Structure formats: structure tokens, C-alpha cells
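Give me C-alpha cells for this 235-residue protein.
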Amino acid sequence: MNLREIAKIIDHSLLHPAMTDAEIVAGCEIARRYEVATVCVKPYSIPLAKSLLKGSPVGICAVIGFPHGNSATDVKVREALEAIQAGAYEIDMVINIGKAKSGAFDYVKEEVRFVNRACQKHNAILKVIFETDFLTDVEIIELSKAMADVRPAFVKTSTGYGFVKQADGAYNYKGATEEHVKLMRQYCDPSTKIKAAGGIRTLDDLLKFHALGCARIGATATEAILEEAKNRGMS
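Here you go.
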């Protein structure tokens, strides 16, 4: 892969809950400089990102139901439509995690179907976030099978904020893992692409997940990854 190809699989993530407007501006400048695929922003940031990226090939991706996926389906649909109207080309939606944990995969399938239909009507791309840190392998398999019926453009591993209580009592997350990506690739429809996100901070991390079949990578360490690629002689 060359430098441009690497940049074009990165969604530059600007999603920290305490992120300031100045930090969003700086993040959009990084995205514009390296010409990544998209900036991934919270809905209120869409107008700012749109103004900063005008004339740039960088797209705008907005998150909805973020980060816990607890909004009602009609709220997610409305949020997606408002984000698209504001200028987002791609939508990253968190599933209803509690419903997935309850085994209500038909509920999840239907909420994705409604949001996906709204996105397709306006030529927007939907990425469906599983939040794999909260899920068992069996639940990931069942979700992947459910998505095979709906066939969104992408499924995505994580928000980067799926903090789970660890054995030592601390809260942390793993984010994207090889094992979970392999399950998603095996059980989703082949037409559905995969986005890996959460904990991908180095060029080797990115290349590993790309080799596993991930067409898009979510990252906050975009500048470090691409500078590392330059330092390795990637043109």
C-alpha cells in the first residue's frame, strides 16, 4: 500500500466527549492535510467540519445513537436524516446493545433496516457499530447473521468508548480484535464491508486489520500512523 491508499481507509475520529471546537478545527486540518476518507464527528460538529473541509476530498461521517445505542428507533432515523441534511455523507450508528444482550436480534435487525433505508434514500452510507467489548462471540455471530439479512454498507467493531469493568475493578476496553473481525467477516454478507475501530494506534495495527479484510479503519492517531508510513518510505 502507498501513503494515499492508507489515508483513504482512515476515518479520522473526533469523538471524545470533552473535545473542544479548537480541537475539532485541528482535527479537520489533519484530515484535510492527509486527505483521509472522512472525519468522524458528533452531529453538532457537522456544520463546522463542512466549512473546514470545503473543497477537500475528505468526507463527513456522523455518529448517531452514540456511544451507547439507547435511542428509540424513530429517534435514530431522525438523527440520521438530520445529519445527512446537515452535510454528512456517512452515518455510524450504534445498535441497541441491551437488546442484543437480551437476544432480541430481530429488534436490532429492524432498527438497522429502518436507518439503512433512510440512508440509502439519500445516498448515504450506513456503518453499524456492534460495540464488541460488550458482546460474547455467540452474540457477535448472531448479530452478523442478522446484518446479513439487512446488508448495510459496513459493520463496525467499536465506538472506542465501550468501557467494561475488568477483573481488577478498573474500566477499560479492548476495541477491535482480530478474533471479532474474523467472526464478523465470516457471518456477515460478503457485500458488507468491515470497519475496525478502537485501539488502533500504529501503522502495524492498521495494516493488520486491513489484511483481515477491513475496508475502513477508525483512528485518533491518524497523524502518527501516516507519519510512520512516510518514515518507512511509503510514497
